[in-house]
Amino acid sequence: MAEPFAQPIVQHIYSLNLGPQHPSTHGVLRVLLDLDGEFIVKADPIVGYGHRGHEKMGENRAYKQFMPNTSRMDYLSGMIYNHGFALAVEKLAGIEVPLRAQYIREIRSELNRISSHLLWFGTYVMDLGGFTPFLYAFDDRENILDILDRVSGSRLTYSYCRFGGVNRDLDPNFVDTTRAFVARLRSRFPDYENMVTKNIIFINRTRDVGVITPELARQYAVTGPNLRACGIAFDTRKTEPYELYDRFDFEVPTGTRGDALDRYYVRMEEMVQSCRIIEQALDQLPDGPYRNTKVPFPLTPPKGEVYFAFESARGQAAYYLVSDGSECPYRCHIRVPSFGNLHVLTEVLRGTLVADAISILGSVDLVIPEIDR
Amino acid sequence: MGDLVGSEWFRLVIGLVIVLAFSQLNALFLVWLERKVAGHIQLRIGPKEVGPFGILQTIVDGIKLVGKELITPLSADRKLFVIAPVLVFMPVLVGFLVLPFGPDLIIRDMNLGVLLIFAFSAFTVLAILAGGWAANNKYALLGAIRSVAQNVAYEIPLLLAALSVVLMVQSMNFGQIVQAQGKIWFIFLQPVAGLIYLICATAETNRAPFDIPEAESELVAGFHTEYSGMRFGLFFLAEYTNMFIVSAVATSLFFGGWHGPFGFALGLPGVVWFLLKTYILIFVIMWVRWTFPRLRFDQLMNFAWKVMIQLALANLIATAAVLKFV
Amino acid sequence: MTKKDELRGRLRALFPEESFGVDEAYRTGVAFSTRVPAERLRDAAEACNETGFYLESITGLDFQDTAELVYHLNCYEPKSRVALRVLLHHDQTLLTLSDIFPSALWLEREVHDFFGISFTEHPDLRPLLLPEDADYHPLQKAFGKVNAYHERKEIYG
Question: Which of B41, B42, B294 faces A129 most closely, judged by CB atoms?
Answer without folding.
Answer: B294
